[in-house]
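Handout, page 2. Input:
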Amino acid sequence: MPSRSAPGHPVDFDAADLAARLEQLTVEEIDALPFGVMHLDPEFRVLIYNKTEARLSGFGRQPVGELFFALSVCMDSDEFRGRIERAMADGRVDLEFGWVGDYADPRRDLRIRVQSADDGGVWLCIERDIRPG
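Output:
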């Protein structure tokens, strides 16, 4: 998957300092990014869920205030949630991994980036394969 960044924004999915760059943006700017972005608190409650994620995932809404893993049960596993929890317990989180399965398409390939947020939570970013319309 080629990496995509938003025109006019210095935020690239592959940026080493992705979380730091996201924290400099407004919610409106985060909504305009071409990849999914979620800011989760330390208990995995959704603080930000960008419009791109709501649209591309097929979820269709922004569940701010809800527990992420109650919404996305396919990711509530040791391979996904457990990996993030272990990284959080070890200190700063900086993970990248592939995942198969999206809210609306269980066969969709995803590229996941998870980095520590300044508030003790994490930024969870999802880049998807682009499928013709």
